[in-house]
Amino acid sequence: MKIGIVVGTRPEIIKMAPVIRECQNRGIPYFIIHSNQHYSEEMDSIFFKELELPKPHYNLGVGSGLHSNQTGNILIKMEPILIEEKPDVVLVQGDTNTVLAGALAASKLGIKVGHIEAGLRSYDRTMPEETNRIMTDHISDYLFAVGPNQHAILLKEGIDPSKIYTVGNTVSDSLFQHLEISAAKSTILNDLELTAGDYFLVTAHRASNVDIASNLMELLHLLDEMHANYTGTIVWPIHPRTQSKLKEFNIELPSYLKLIPPVGYLDFIQLQKHAKLILTDSGGIQEEACLLGVPSLTLRENTERPEAVEVGASELVGRNAEKAVKAAKKWLSAGKVSWENPFGDGHVAEHILDILTNTRNIEDEEKIV
Ligand code: UD1
Ligand code: UDP
To answer: How many domains does the chain have?
Structure first.
């Protein structure tokens, strides 16, 4: 069995890392294709370094661009590699343009596709990610669903049940594997002069939140209101997309915001772990906050990860300042909070490779679902 592993953006590198490591542990032949959709050091190579990943065997260098440009270039550049390498399966993770293009390139060549994080749906077709998810799921041969919600969604869409495997999310593997090392190595709290449990952490990069000036202003108003009601520091490691939009719209940020460039994974784990509250529109951070036991406000009207809301770890507030202030109050006055973990047992990459290599048995099946 030879596995082609496709990555392209920050979250794909983080969530695919455990699968790469497991291939190495088991001596399974694999190769990595990096689309380079993300390419800035702090969005790309820092994660290869920190997660001790091998250099990608192929780097497509597609960079930023319009959707068709990015997706088309990945398709064009990936096909000859797949023809040459002849993998038995190509693995993609998540919902980016890299995922759709990688899955499509393999599928057109008759190579089996494995989609990690299958079955997520926001039911919001204005999100480019929703198109990518749906199309990828429907051309995949192995659909690695996170939990029973996603399993049910895929069945409802008519996917052959024999293709669906409920395994959890590899985000849990990465997080559990790096918690200790992040605590030992990261000095970010000291560097930023932050007190554990005494700051809010913000991230935002969804096109719907940052690409339209009035929406971005609404988001900033929400932060203003949070600051007015709760004071304290608000730390914001800013995504390059958001940074470039702030510049384009000529928006000045208030001085109470501690704006920093995107940080590495080890630092970001510590920033999350010790935050009083996390405000985010990120997919991966909704999951990680929930796994770390830190409450979060999801800065979106909908989510493809309803589990965090269902277990009481998060609340959908969109860009509505009033809702955010009210939801924050609930948690800030609650003292210590806890909930069930809906996002995986930390051994998800093992489950995936057991399935691909036909070594998973019925007992495992019962344990995982
Ligand atoms: C992409 C994914 C999104 C994912 C996110 C993870 C799609 C459609 N979007 O969004 O689903 O949640 O990655 O972070 O696939 N830029 C840099 N350096 C980089 C990368 C981007 O400066 O390394 C800037 C460029 O100005 C670029 C902009 O960010 O135009 C957006 O990058 P892009 O990859 O198109 O989308 P993301 O917003 O990063
Ligand atoms: N992350 C990071 N540094 C940061 C912000 C995020 O390492 O400054 C990590 C975070 O721990 C999570 C992932 O990046 O694993 C989330 O990526 P992002 O929010 O860009 O994408 P999404 O999950 O929304 O697709």
So the answer is: 2
CATH number, domain of 263, equals 3.40.50.2000
Instruction: Note if 205 is an active site residue.
Output: yes
The type of residue at 8 is G
Tens digit of pLDDT for each residue in 29-49? 999 999 999 999 999 999 999
**Is this complex's ipTM strictly greater than 0.90?**
yes
Angle between helices 283-292 and 265-273 (to 10 degrees): 60
- In angstroms, what is the span from residue 10 Cα to ligand 2's centroid? 6
- Please give the number of the atom of ligand 2 that sits closest to the Cα of 263: 8
* Mean pLDDT in residue range 113-121: 98
Specify whether 77 is located in the same domain as 153.
Answer: yes
Q: Which range marks the domain in which residue 204 is found?
A: 176-332
* Ligand 1-lining residues (CB < 6 angstroms): 9-11, 37-40, 43-44, 64, 95-97, 128-129, 205, 240-241, 244
- Distance from the CA of 135 to the center of ligand 2, in angstroms? 23
- Position 273 in a domain: yes
| Ligand index nearest the alpha carbon of residue 37 | 1
Q: Is residue 337 part of a domain?
A: no
Stated as kind and residue range, the H or E segment containing 288 is helix 283-292
Residue 134 and residue 52: Cα distance in Å, rounded?
32
**pLDDT tens digit sequence for 45-59:** 999 999 999 999 999
